[in-house]
Specification:
With about 400 residues, this protein is α/β, with parallel strands linked by helices. It has helices at about 25, 30-40, 55-65, 70, 75-85, 120-135, 185-200, 205-210, 235, 250-255, 275-290, 300-305, 310-335, 380-385, 395-400; strands at about 1-10, 40-45, 90-100, 110-115, 140-145, 150-155, 160-165, 180, 220-225, 240-245, 260, 290-295, 335-340, 360-365, 390. The chain starts with a strand and ends with a helix. The relative contact order is 0.24.
């Protein structure tokens, strides 16, 4: 038996005014996913444990079968693993976004215009982070470039006793009430203000403005954490696994879990990603190994950006380009497989941020396609079945028949 997880990040939603009070999953045309739902198990799963923030870090770890109360040490350490930064025991890491702030003279009066600097390219942001590192690196604080707008700061001897806000949670809001608080806050704020000066007249930003794109005007630290503690996936489940994602966070989870992390050319984490390339890489991986986790970020990004049509497009493309392809190719080859389809958390269009509500999941078994829920894949139908996995990290055991 082969095991495939299709993770549509942030795919679940609340009723959307633009779609006359229906959710994205209710309006999206997704015939293959709906077929698998009707002929498989449909239920609800709580991926974010009480007392934990509904981040993609916590939620994806849970979907992969890890009890986040025991394994989670912060978001950015997972991203550090992806970048290849070896952490010392006293290191504290910070996810460092390149963001677009408004142009008020006083830094604290600025507004969060764009948490992703217009989804800046990896090549452009690497040059900007090089400029940041040149001026702001010290003996104890170092900056590292990542992918697109997602970067890393490592503070040797730093503190996690700090209150930081994810920039995607404060789109279009004044940043004054969301600046760093706690241990080290003054230094973090000093670096944020210094980054504005460094970035302001950088040729990369001048070029972006000339092309009508959002410039990266500041760094924004958040997601603090310490050295990861994630159990090896093979030792835990006895399966050789691969992970496919465009996002450093998910790549980092894979590396910490001892799984193969597959890079797909043109994979961006947005709607313009290489969908076909991801599907083909997933097929190759599952034919070689026992387990593949295909993470697609686009629904989450569109939720953060408040774009219902594009989020609908992302869900429909996951169905038509990825799920259908894998189903058809494995069926044609006579390969028995199980597929788990779900989001990690909802990212409602109306809120433009993550929430910790339970999410609908499908478990489809190609060898047992005669029974099933008889329902289409929606949030409300998931609730109707009465199947509820309260401890989200146990869903993987259910999926793998452990």
């Amino acid at each position: 038996m082969k095991y495939i997880v299709i993770l549509g990040d942030g795919m679940a939603d609340y009723p959307v005014d633009y779609f006359d009070g229906k959710t994205i999953l209710e309006v999206a045309n997704k015939p293959t996913i709906d077929y698998m739902c009707a002929h498989g198990e449909l239920g609800m799963c709580k991926t974010v444990q009480d007392g934990m923030k509904p981040g993609s870090d916590v939620a994806n770890l849970s979907v992969m079968g890890y009890d986040t109360k025991k394994s989670y040490t912060g978001r950015s350490p997972l991203e550090a693993a992806s970048i290849g930064v070896d952490m010392k025991d006293d290191d504290v890491t910070f996810r460092t976004n390149l963001v677009t702030l408004s142009d008020e003279e006083n830094y604290a009066d600025k507004t969060m215009i764009d948490y992703s600097s217009g989804e800046i390219t990896t090549e452009e942001s690497a040059e900007l982070m090089k400029a940041i590192a040149k001026e702001l690196d010290t003996d104890v604080i170092k900056f590292y470039p990542g992918i697109s707008y997602r970067h890393l700061c490592v503070w040797s001897g730093g503190s996690t006793n700090v209150e930081l806000t994810p920039p995607h949670d404060i789109s279009d809001r004044c940043i004054k009430n969301y600046l760093p608080k706690g241990d080290g806050a003054e230094k973090l704020y000093e670096m944020m203000r210094a980054s504005e000066r460094i970035l302001k007249n950088h040729p990369i930003n001048k070029s972006r403005v000339e092309r009508g794109l959002n410039p990266a005007t500041s760094i924004w630290p958040w997601g603090e954490g310490t050295k990861p503690s994630v159990e090896n996936f093979y030792e835990k489940y006895g399966l050789k696994g691969s992970v496919i994602s465009a996002v450093d966070l998910i790549k980092g989870i894979a590396k910490c879990a001892g799984m193969e992390s597959i890079d797909v050319p043109g994979a961006t984490g947005n709607c313009e990603t290489n969908w076909k390339g991801k599907a083909e890489a997933a097929l190759d991986a599952i034919l070689r190994n026992d387990f593949v986790y295909v993470h697609m970020e686009a629904p989450d990004e569109m939720g953060h950006q408040g774009k219902p049509e594009k989020k609908k497009f992302a869900v429909e493309t996951i169905d038509s380009v990825v799920v259908k392809f894998l189903n058809d190719e494995l069926t044609k080859r006579g390969v028995d497989f199980k597929m788990l389809i779900m989001p990690d958390h909802p990212t409602p269009i109306s809120l433009r941020t993550h929430v910790s509500d339970p999410v609908p999941y499908i478990i489809y078994n190609s060898t047992k396609a005669d029974g099933g829920s008889g329902l289409t894949y929606t949030e409300e139908n998931g609730k109707r079945t009465g199947i509820y996995i309260e401890k989200g990290y146990t869903l993987m055991d259910r999926f793998l028949d452990k």
